[in-house]
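User: Before I run my own analysis I want an independent prediction to cross-check against. Here's the chain; please return only the structure tokens and, at the end, one sentence I can use as a sanity check.
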Amino acid sequence: MLKWIVVLLIVAAAASLLGMPALAGAAATGARILIGIVLIIFLLMVLGIFAVT
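Assistant: Structure tokens:
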């Protein structure tokens, strides 16, 4: 999932530099959502509620 975050951030940066604000915004929003999901899963693992085996 971290790979997807990095890819979306690179796409957002490239689209922003090339003058495509809609694509840059969509990619940044996707990365922001994935970052939120990763942080929630990490918090659940730290608290011991969710275990990855």
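Sanity check: The CA atoms of residues 15 and 24 lie 5 Å apart.
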